Amino acid sequence: MSMYPKPPGPNEGQVQRSTFFGDGNLDGLAKHFVGNLHRYRENIIIPKSMGPVQIKTNEEKLVESVFESCTFKSVIACVIGYGLGAAIGLFSASVNPNVADPFFAEKRQTAREIFRDMRASTHSYGKNFAIIGAVFSAVECTIETSRGVSDWRNGTYAGAVTGGLIGLRAGVKAGVIGAAGFAAFSTVIDYYMRHRHD
Fold first, then answer.
1. Where does residue 29 fall: left (phi above 0), alpha (psi -120 to 50 degrees), or beta otherwise?
2. Which one, of 66, 88, 177, lies nearest residue 133 by Cα?
3. pLDDT per residue over 33-76, tens digit each?
4. What's the start-to-end Cα distance of the chain, in Å?
């Protein structure tokens, strides 16, 4: 190991900022042991005071963003709404007076006609509930995204918009009544669901 100073390099004339120490040799040694100075967000150390911490991968973040998107929520609400409406339509068709007591009817219905009426009623109820669920979920998600707050007001506003849109098919008065009724119903349901989990 030579004790003589090294000859000046091409960048020796320029003043270099030290990161750790004023002495260049110590600063280079510190940089060697510290390693990469550019820390990325995925490499931060999180204390495990609240249990094990797992940093999400990019694939997990992508899947989570898809599940939390308004489009996915609307599609799920549409499917669930159709299933619920179909169940209600099937029940209402099974207790329909025209079908329940065929012996006293003037014209006795065949089994095929009964099943056709039940299928039509089931599909009609399912379609209506699917539209309501999809519109309500899309409006609520849009309002929540724009407000940046998740509280009971989102459901109330979404209920008012959904009820107003549905009621407008029968006129302005029906739209106002539908908006008020749907908003009140959404508020009561949201209040009950939130306080049940508290």
1. alpha
2. 88
3. 776 666 555 556 666 666 666 777 888 888 888 888 889 999 99
4. 72
